[in-house]
């Protein structure tokens, strides 16, 4: 039986959407005209893909004040700031799924100094699952290993695919002021595996 593909996977399985999101992550806010010119997409096609990214919570848009008559243009940006409405919606959905999982499974409650780190790990775990990744984080929180990347077919010839996903991993960990940060991605470093280096600021202070 074929694996179930969740909405985030289906959204990010399009190279056109990956290229649009990569441009916004790397170079900041742009209009649909600017994005169409950079990616080679037709304006209407680019706009449709951007709407799909907005629905998934990866992109936000804002109106550009119009000087003359006519509808104001929209400027699009990657939803990376904690206060972005799309980012907040994604985080709320993640927290709801995690809360449900904790009710169903005997997961240990964590408080005190570990609380922020636990929220980060929950957010990252939910993000990876929603995108279709099978991933494990080692006990020392120094690296995450991903097995059988569902986007490998796209990524082998398009390195921007990995760059987009690494930025999303960084975003998943940046939900608040927790100690964990993703510092480097190592794509295809082993048979069917990729790894991400993690830095735990609080653990570093111990030594």
TrEMBL record:
Q: Where is this region: Disordered?
A: 64-98
Q: Which SUPFAM superfamilies match?
A: Winged helix' DNA-binding domain
> Where along the chain is composition biased (Basic and acidic residues)?
78-95
- Lineage: superkingdom: Bacteria
Q: Which Pfam families match?
A: HTH_20
Q: What is this protein called?
A: Transcriptional regulator
Lineage runs:
Bacteria, Bacillati, Actinomycetota, Actinomycetes, Micrococcales
């Amino acid at each position: 039986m074929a694996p179930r593909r969740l909405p985030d996977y289906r959204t990010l399985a399009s190279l056109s959407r990956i290229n649009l999101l990569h441009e916004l992550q790397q170079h900041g806010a742009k209009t649909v005209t600017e994005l169409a010119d950079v990616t080679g997409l037709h304006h209407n096609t680019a706009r449709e893909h951007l709407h799909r990214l907005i629905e998934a919570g990866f992109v936000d848009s804002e109106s550009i004040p119009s000087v003359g008559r006519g509808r104001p243009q929209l400027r699009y940006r990657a939803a990376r700031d904690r206060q972005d409405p799309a980012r907040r919606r994604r985080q709320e959905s993640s927290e709801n799924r995690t809360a449900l999982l904790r009710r169903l499974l005997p997961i240990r409650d964590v408080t005190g100094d570990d609380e922020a780190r636990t929220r980060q790990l929950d957010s990252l775990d939910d993000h990876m699952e929603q995108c279709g990744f099978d991933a494990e984080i080692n006990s020392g929180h120094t690296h995450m290993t991903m097995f059988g990347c569902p986007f490998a077919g796209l990524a082998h010839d398009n390195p921007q695919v990995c760059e987009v996903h690494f930025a999303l991993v960084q975003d998943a960990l940046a939900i608040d002021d927790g100690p964990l940060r993703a510092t480097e991605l190592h794509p295809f470093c082993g048979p069917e595996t990729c790894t991400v280096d993690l830095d735990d600021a609080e653990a570093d202070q111990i030594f």
